[in-house]
Amino acid sequence: MREIVSYFTTIPSSHRSLILVSGITLFWLIENAFPLFKFNYKKWHHAGINLFLTATTIIINFVLAFILLKTSDWTITHNFGILQWLPPMPLCPYILIGLLLLDLIGAYLVHLIEHKVKFLWRFHLIHHSDIWVDTTSANRHHPGESIIRFVFTTLGIIVVGSPMWMVFMYQTLSVISTQFTHANLSLPKKLDVFISYFIVSPNMHKVHHHYRLPYTDSNYGNIFSIWDRIFGTFMYLPKEEIIYGIDSHLDPKENNKLNNLLKIPFQKQRLSQNH
After folding, report:
1. Distance between CA atoms of 108 and 223, rounded to whole angstroms?
2. Can you tell me whether residue 245 is helix, strand or coil?
3. Torsion angle, CA of 87/90/92/95, rounded to 10 degrees?
4. How far apart are CA 193 and CA 204, in angstroms?
5. Position 35 confidence tier, pLDDT thresholds 50, 70, 90
């Protein structure tokens, strides 16, 4: 375990980029071989839009990364945050507690708030507008949402008192998890259900992408499924009944045009069954 900590303490940016690209490539190949749904769409055009938005997320996080580093250093220097206040313990439970708390604040909480606050929903809507969810959809975030999520990641570091190596570890696991849960792949039902008791499974997250309430406002988890179960936001819907997208933006001219996707947060919002 200490070797893993040592790796994330000095992980090069090139390795982090390689993990992201390798994940997308791996799940792309798997979902082509074992698709959950057979989409009738221009896969490369769809991927181009999503990968552009992924690139903007990477750039924003790269430019602002020094804030995470300074924040983490401050918590360690001033002995601030939950991890800093815990009694000495073995490394494994220390890491697990840290990852769970980072996931709660930096992923579950911000995701929940984005669904409840209308102004923030305007930005998050772009992610939900995808009517062909596959592994490239994982980081289909408006640049504005990337900044919002970065703020909560920073808040998570402050509250948790997380060392920077743990932040890198969490971000790496988060990338892999989101690519896995968004991938258009079909797992055996019993396996998917079993996985969902510990981490977010593909079918569990697909429910969140159903186009209408109440399912849109459920299953907010990123890596760990425990938060949805604790806070009562877990829901189940048979995969055969899932319809992707958001009911206010089902027209491909709105949800499959990059230029329009970037403008959506600033357009007059129409009434929908959702928000």
Report:
1. 9
2. coil
3. 30
4. 8
5. confident
Rg (CA), the chain: 18
pLDDT tens profile 124-159: 999 999 999 999 999 999 999 999 999 999 999 999
In a 13 Å sphere around the CA of 266, the CA atoms on its Cβ side amount to: 8
pLDDT at 272 over 60: no
Closest CA to 245 of 258, 233, 234, 256: 256
pTM: 0.91
Q: Are 33 and 134 in contact (CB under 8 A)?
A: no
CA dihedral 193, 197, 200, 204 (to 10 degrees): 40
Rounded to whole angstroms, the Cα distance separating 84 from 82 reads 5
Residues 6+ apart with CB under 8 A from 66: none
CB 211 within 8 A of CB 239: no
Identify the band that residue 3 occupies on the pLDDT scale cut at 50, 70 and 90: confident
Paired tokens of 67: 């804030």
Residues 104 and 129: their CA atoms lie apart, in Å, by: 24
Burial of 78 (0-12, 13-18, 19+ CB in 10 A): exposed
